[in-house]
Amino acid sequence: MLIKNIKSLLQTSTPTKALRGKELSELKSIENAWLLIENDIIKNYGSMDSCPNFEGETIDALGKMILPTWCDSHTHLVFATSREEEFEMRLKGKSYQEIAEAGGGILNSAKKLQNTSEEALFKSAWERLNEVIKMGTGAIEIKSGYGLSLDDELKMLRVIKRLKEKSPIPIKANFLGAHSYPLEYKDNHQGYIDLIVNEMLPQIAKECLADYIDAFCEKVAFSVTETEQIIEAGAKYGLKAKVHTNQFNCMGGIELCVKHNALSVDHLEVVNDEEIECLKNSETIATLLPSAPFFLSDPYQPGRKLVDEGVAVALASDYNPGSSPSGNMNFVVSLACVKLKMTPAEAINAATINGAFALELNEEYGSISKGKKANFILTKKISSIAYIPYAFGSNLVDQVIINGKIF
Ligand code: NIG
Ligand code: FE
After folding, report:
1. Nearest C-alpha to atom 11 of ligand 1 is from which residue?
2. Ligand showing the shortest atom-to-Cα distance for residue 100
3. Which residues make beta-bridge pairs with 222?
4. Pocket lining for ligand 1, CB < 6 angstroms
5. Which CATH class is domain 71-357?
6. Fold held by 2-69+367-406
7. Where in the chain is the domain with CATH 2.30.40.10?
8. Which pLDDT value is given to residue 41?
9. Contact predicate 375/365, CB 8 Å
10. Ligand nearest to the CA of 76
11. What is the pTM of this model?
12. How many A from CA of 74 to the centre of ligand 2?
């Protein structure tokens, strides 16, 4: 398939490390371009004055742009039901943390998931996955963490495994048994950690159900020393850490994760100068999830400062029923500009190539380069790159191409 007369072919770089600092502001692109796809692979591209003669299927993209599909490196896409009753409680003044402490929140989702069959979970997750692909997501991470018992964490991870097998886009599974303490372990934290370490992890490893390990390092969830036990136990099975931290409090989670060479630290609504210093001298990616503070009316991540200080920043949706009931990466990119003060180029880089690095998929995804998978978004006719985050709420996606085929 040849696509010609592309107004701008965006993100044609092939970096070997996640972009940071000034690198993030450069969105390498070709104006008035062509793109040649062979099967599911990007074969070649260039500017129209070198367009090859091609007999096969040809698309005229006059006025339209092409960019790589979004790499959404943090989601909780498998869940049983939505939680709009908690949304209404928050609208009346209850906070997310108060609702969680009263047994709502993650425990509410866990109760519902425990009573839902693997088949039903698969079906609803499959619908959500198709929904986000249509909005331009071309690689995704999915966490467990609403099971919170051996059987139910395994059930969730088996659902993710089935999604992986059937999905046209790559999926990475992240084991988040340490999402919250189940009620019966409220006063016996070590008992639950032992369950994760001695029972869940060995079985997960045996069935190859996880690529990464996660924990919710937060006052309402796992302390730094508890999180460290989880990270160390995961490392024994070769699982790198991608960890929820600094959503509400600075407690030392970032320092801990950097010490253990975590692939990413995710959330970062609150982050202090020492933590920024620690991150910028590391390879750990700061994955910012601006739709969570949008939905919870919390302070936003200091995206501008993190970029200026030279931290490698990625953007992800955090799609989940409690704090971000949306997997729309187009909106995430708009929020990153409007609220995190990132530029359109920085936000697009953070949501594509840096997201790919945060999933270790950068060799095949995250940019338009020869030999990578032909996963990209063909926009509607738009006036400039900035129009993408500017026109928030409009659907600017004309076609999503996955593995060389229109999705
Ligand atoms: O990333 N903060 C922890 N976990 C999720 C929310 C989970 C939920 O509320 O169901 C998050 O925001
Ligand atoms: Fe999350």
Report:
1. 323
2. 1
3. 217
4. 105-106, 109, 216, 244, 247, 292, 318, 320-323
5. alpha beta
6. Urease, subunit C; domain 1 (2.30.40)
7. 2-69+367-406
8. 98
9. yes
10. 2
11. 0.98
12. 6
